[in-house]
User: What shape does this take?
Amino acid sequence: MSNTQTLEQQLMTWRQELHRHPELSTQEFQTTNKLKKWLAEYGIEAQTWGLKTGLIADIGTGHPIVAIRADIDALPIQEDIQQAFRSTQDGVMHACGHDLHSSSILGAAILLKAQESELKGTVRVIFQPAEETYSGAYEVINSGALKQVSAIFGFHNVPELALGTFATRSGAFYANVDRFQIVIKGKGGHAGRPHETKDPIVVAAQLISAVQTIASRSINNLDTCVVSITQVHAGTSWNILPEEAHLEGTVRTHSPEVRLAVEQKLKQIAQGIALAHSVEISVAWDNGPAALINTSKWAELSQKVAKEQGYDVQDAPLYLIGEDFGAYLEQIPGAFVSIGSASPFGLHHPQYQPNESLIFPAAQYFAVLATQALESIHKNAEV
Ligand code: NI
Assistant: This one.
């Protein structure tokens, strides 16, 4: 058996171990201990950088520094697949494939360690906690671990893409994922005497209709913009008009300007409707993860290396979902990529079943990408 086969099997075994024992965001204590132990078996010493969960390891020495990142957390989903390495935690499942991401980046770390003396700088390997709750990337940023890093790379598996398929794009990729909550405070009363009330339900209906004009009439239709009201709550009985109505929803955009314009327009519409109906309307806006915007230069290198490594390279579409890797790319340059995992069911589904054969090629890919990124920065610094 060759060393390559050994490592490939080792990575799949580790992935299955992670899959058996998934942990929710910010609770990845066992996962962190396991990753630390597995890295140590290959002579790689990991540091916490003050993180409660997750860890960071450097391979090579000196500058420049490039980072590769995996997310390590699981989801509150009951696994609905019978397989030997099924989740042993009731109601918790690696349903987004972060177990595959961790194993792949672990593999890249091991491959890089084997050629450590040839590296033109340092590769910082980041095992990030809490991606699903969009807090982990900020924890890593706050730890200071990114301060001297010149470029960062990461990936997500994509169930809809075939095994051996790779996709990325320059510029905007994943969306700004924002949330809003609206409270309409009217005046309740008898349903038979509505003139004595300030009915928040009728106001809610107008508001729901009015916000549809944000995407269709306020924002340039060439920009991406989704405004969805996802929750409407009001009332307790058939013959009572309630005091309040509560609405909640999400906005998805790709540019910071459009993001801000939607927030302002939403608040403006709410104020106008409140004034027209003599009710109070409050809008609480909660900025979620920032849009993920790839640096062209690094997206191009990512594609070039993928071709060299034998991937079927495609152009990725724009996504309207979020990925907290976007927070890193607000700070430093880099690129995020998609790798096919050929699952019959999608991410966050109880029967999501990615093909783990993607792990070893992804490990090789990130080892080569990090090496070439260091060489590229080194070469540019010389001229
Ligand atoms: Ni994910």
